Structures are given as structure tokens and as C-alpha cells.
Amino acid sequence: MPNSDCDVLVVGAGVSGLTTAICLAEAGGRVVIRAATPPGQTTSSVAGAIWGPHLVEESERVDRWGRETLAILQELAGDPAAAVRPLSGVQAIRGVPGQAGGAPAAPSHWMAGLGASPCSAGDLPPGFASGWRYSAPLVHMPTYLGYLLARFEAAGGRLEAGTVGSLSAAGAEHGARVVVNCTGTGAHGLLPDPALKPFRGQVVIAENPGLSEFFIGLPDGTMELVYLFPHGDTVVLGGTEVGGDWNTEPVPAVAERILRDCAAIEPRVHGVRVLGHRVGLRPFRPQVRLEAEPPGPGPLVVHNYGHGGAGVTLSWGCAREAAGLAAQALS
Questions:
Q1: What is the pLDDT, as a whole number, of residue 122?
Q2: Contact, 173 vs 2, CB < 8 A?
């Protein structure tokens, strides 16, 4: 049996779970993370991962969580161990600005906040009619998740492997007064939460043929999402965004399509050496679930999941709010 000496049990070890656990542990809480999947095998590890709201509700609270996270990621860019760095690049669309199906005539408010400027024709690959150039924090997720885990453990936290059939029962087993649910798509079956829907993402990890900027090509009625995120000697090539698909195994035909689409945008990708294939399930809800359940006879349950494609983008803002809800119960 695990030690029953924690104040808070966090369920899930992706970016949301680790960040929430850090906020609690660094504030002096005794925190245990229980996760069926280690950080390096979570959906978070598959992320591109560039700061910017994607596949998530449009709301004031998302803007606030995103701003808070952006500020912290910009601070972490000064710490090599975190593997966060500012990177310039282009987000493009095949339509014409201001026309139906095209890009907006002005950048989104979050891109404007990053200093977005209209792309010149020379910035756009064949087939793209408009886009915006900006700079944003890019995160190498395998390294960053390791950084978060080390920071959590340095604050006295502990990660344990294990599944959870009931949040309240798991909390009671540990003697925890609060359980924080950061299970991502796992919440669909655990709670259950029928409002949660997976959006499958598949990427190809390849040797970097010399790319130094990111590129994001938004999907339309004829083409799928495509992106290139360089991380030093490697590059993450994507991608897919398939709602309701629970398949976590790479599909060879999809990998071939990703390589073909990326090579059409950046010819240096053609014939590049492939290092691996990864699949993750983005946990989408119509609204992010960040709330405490009404108090009951067992431990208080706080939910922090359903961030869609914005898990990294909202991570610190959501973690701070979830930790604040937990702290209220502990006090």
C-alpha cells in the first residue's frame, strides 16, 4: 500500500498534472501524483509544442490563463534545463484575408500580442495565400516534462505508478484531503464525462535538415493541418486533428501524408531521416473543466482537464487556479 501521508493527490502526470502538483508542492503542500502513464508517454510528450490557444473555448478566462502561462514560459526561456525558447515563424492559410474561408483581415488578439505582422509573398510556401509572422515560446516537451518532474520532486513531491478507478477512493487510500483530476482524455471513462472528446494527433519525429523557424498551415476543406516545429537537431512534423478517434497507434499512411505535406512546404524535408512516430489524444471539451465539486464526506475533488490543443498554452494559469481551489480546502 502507498504511504497515506499526503495532503493532495494529483491524478495524471501530463503537463497539467505536473504543473498543478508543482504549484501545490512549492507552496508547502505534501503532494503525490498517481499516474497510469509516466510523463514521457503522455499526450503532452507528443505536443509540438508552441504557445498559442488551439482547439479550446474562446473566453476571457482562457485569455487570462494563457497570458499567465505565456509570462512564465518567457521566464523559463532563460533556464536551459526547461528547454523553452522563443522562436519566429509563420501561421498561414490558403484563403484570402477578409473573404469567406480565408484568414481574418487582422491577426487574432493573441497573435497581435506576440507582435504578429502580415506575411509577405516571399514568406509563404506554394498554395498559401495569406498568413502572419510572429514569435512565440516553443517547448521541447520530452525535456520540459523531465524538468517539471525534477522540480516537483525537488519540492518534496512523489510520483507513483498506478491506475485510479475512483477519485474519492484513491484520495481516501492516501489519506488526502484533496484530489485534483488532471487525467485529460482519461476523464471520459473515469468520471465518466461524455462531453469530453479526443482529437487524435499524429506526428513524425525526424532529423532537422536545417530548419530554424516554425510553420503552421491551418486546415481547410481540402487540406489537413500541417506544421513543422524545429527543436535543435530534430524537427516535429505534423499533423492530424481527427475528432472522436481513440486510436493511439501510428498509421503508416498518415505518416506518409505528413511527410509529403511538410516536404511540399519545406523542400529540405524531402528524404529526411525519420527517427520516430508519436500519437496523442487532445482532450477537448466545449469548456475547460476547472472547478471544485461540492464538498462531500470524502476528499474534495478539483477538476483541471479538457484543455484541447492548448494544454501547454494554459498550463500555468490553470494550475495556479486549481492549486488555489485545493488550498482553500486545506486551509
A1: 81
A2: yes
Place of cell 490543443: 309
Q: Judging by DSSP bridges, how do beta strands 226-231 and 178-181 pair with one another?
A: unpaired
Residue 221: which pLDDT band, with cuts at 50, 70 and 90? confident
Instruction: List CB contacts of 138: < 8 A, sequence separation 6 or more.
Output: 48, 49, 50, 51, 84, 85, 86, 87, 214, 229, 231
pTM of the model: 0.94
The model's pLDDT over 92-135, given as tens digits with 9 standing for 90+, comes to: 998 765 554 445 567 889 999 999 999 988 889 988 999 999 99
Residues 219, 221: Cα–Cα separation, whole Å: 7
What does DSSP say about strands 197-207 and 234-238: parallel, antiparallel, or unpaired?
antiparallel
Query: Three-state SS string across 290-302, please?
Result: EEECCCCCCCEEE
ω into 49 cis (within 30 of 0): yes
